[in-house]
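Dear colleague,

Following up on Tuesday's group meeting, I ran the structure prediction for the two-component complex that the binding team flagged. I've pasted the input sequences exactly as they went in, so you can double-check that nothing got truncated or mislabelled along the way. The structure tokens for the whole assembly follow below. Feel free to forward this to whoever is handling the docking comparison.

Inputs:
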Amino acid sequence: MSGGVMHAEMLEQPAVLERLVGRFDDQVERLRTVVPDGLAGVAFLARGSSDHAAVYGRYLAELTSGRPAGLAAPSLHTLYRADVDYSGYLVVALSQSGATPEIVSVCARLRDAGARTVAITNAADSPLALAADVAVDLAAGAERAVPATKTVTAQLVALAMVGAALGPAPFTARDLAELPPAVAGVLDDPEPASAVAERFADTERLYVVARGLLYGAALEAALKIKETTGVFAEAISAADLRHGPIRAAGPDAPVLILDGGGPGSADLQDLASVLRERRVPVALCGPGEDADVTLPRATPEALAVVPATVRAQQLALAMADVRGLDADRPAGLTKVTRTH
Amino acid sequence: MSGGVMHAEMLEQPAVLERLVGRFDDQVERLRTVVPDGLAGVAFLARGSSDHAAVYGRYLAELTSGRPAGLAAPSLHTLYRADVDYSGYLVVALSQSGATPEIVSVCARLRDAGARTVAITNAADSPLALAADVAVDLAAGAERAVPATKTVTAQLVALAMVGAALGPAPFTARDLAELPPAVAGVLDDPEPASAVAERFADTERLYVVARGLLYGAALEAALKIKETTGVFAEAISAADLRHGPIRAAGPDAPVLILDGGGPGSADLQDLASVLRERRVPVALCGPGEDADVTLPRATPEALAVVPATVRAQQLALAMADVRGLDADRPAGLTKVTRTH
């Protein structure tokens, strides 16, 4: 089967997530010990897939900590050698391998600049884990497929831990416990994603739209689809799509909408109507009955990024299948890149 | 002429920029009065084209202030009603009209939450200007074309003012004085952009790559090209392109590289070589002699975002022309959008 390695790793996700959920409270306790007193802000440091997880982390951290959060700009530190005081900041660095040189060196630099640092890696003894004050080990097992899957959803749960360490989280212990079986349910139901892949069989360009806590899943969906198919997929917030690029959507450039059932839901439903009126093909992924691809209804929006990301993986795999491509062999992609 | 209104406004840019440069030092003095003591961080608040200018502002502000900077997530405040303490923060809100409801309401909300606030608008009496502690009026004159041009480059200069108010700026008074004539020189030289537009006449997908202080220009270039032509253009940092989506570049998906001649230049030149080896058509915009489209050599990288943005405008206009489209009449685009 094409994409067999990717698919096998996707199927490991309920077990990986269950292990993480089992360690959730302990990890939150450890993370609390490094949150600076008088927190000035939270900055996330990442590249690629990890950067998309970080977008989720950024929204959640600002919500729970009550202090501004944002994404660090690694090139300010690698290229420009910026002299920046990070005291009062919690910096959360993500790298699946823990070996992305740029992330390791910037994490060390920001720690030297006063930040308290957290590393989220899938390699407990990696340079990044060693460079940070506290490390969360995803323990997802070796990832062999080039398109990252289980490490991404594991990162999302690790970022939920960071959010919970920073303040009251918008999800309960029961919500967490129900997440692995909910993901298993999604994985047992691949047909809806395959049906969308069939509808989009001739698509060479695609928008992926979400808002707020689901926006990271939109970024990840676009990247996965690009990786597995070469389709020119682009994530965009609903607000920004309306603000201009809606011109580029059309019969040949459909829109995938990810709706987590949160406060942005009405806006996304309205956008779907506007697009359909403009004869733009729309695929809706959400908890509603009218969704083309459903999300588990019991998952709160603050955790819906996990099943939404799994739906995106299914779609990326199915789109590759429909095109006769092998999702395990994307050209031009390497696992660890050296940037300077 | 198609795109006649857009083109006329592009030609106003040297005069608009000259007026702003003439007010530069006075505005920097005013801005300094609102920078909080013990600055905790800087957050930029914007949508659409303004968001791209804000990316430039974010890099520059972290460089000059020596404190972390980032982009605010408006939906955290509009959708989620997040309760966030912004004390110690300078918030810089951008809206050309000064009337984007989401930006106005979030600016007021963050000011109430403790931020000192700056409004950058092209409308001195606009709701946003009135909602902020200090307002910088772009005084660019009414903008009639739907694709924003002169207000964008004016915003970039206003953001250079913010950077200079936060700390030592990486440009001199003489660099500023030379910026308007440099832009006039670019506008007098439209042929190189037209030649690239001819080469890309059949392109329906395009990557725009830059790093650091030029990344905002890449975002703006992608948006302008999408607006005027419907081409699926996407901005991406050189690092992130290598990290995965390089698979999607190819003979049908060329890459426009914006090189400001700064510390990222060697990396961008290397990327251009890698892409050409992969038979990906590349158009290089930079200060070097081998550039397809040149940037003024005397402009320091910290201000090169302005002429690079003008080059992007020329390319967007020329790509519309080559395709027989009217850049003044992009479908599906409205000037002020209401998001909620």
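Confidence is low (pLDDT under 50) at residues 332-340 of chain A.

Cheers,
M.
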